[in-house]
Amino acid sequence: MIVIGTVFLVSIFILSMTQEKNIVYGCTPDFWKNNLELWKNLGVNYNDDFDKTFGKDYFDPDITLQQAIHAEGVGINHLARSGTAAYLNALVDPRIDETAVKTAIYFGYIHDIDKLNEHCEKQDHQP
Description:
The protein is built from seven helices and no strands. The protein is mostly helical.
């Protein structure tokens, strides 16, 4: 009985290793800051400059997208954190317009960005 169980478990393991895996993406800034390795799947380098990515000079000295997603607090830090998450969400979900996200970040429309993120959090996403 032990041999049959072992063979079954090994078979399941081998089968799971050979099948293509679907990665389910989250939407929150916490998800993205805790899963930096997934950014490369979207073609995003978390070491890229926040200001250059969004075309507006908000930070002096400059910060990276990784620093932006880790930013705490309100105001510009909230914009950086939520905006970076919304940008990544737009790259995952074709229903979210990447240009609209970048425009909202450029003009500081945090309410629009938060609405996008709230909507996204209610959905399951796969690349």
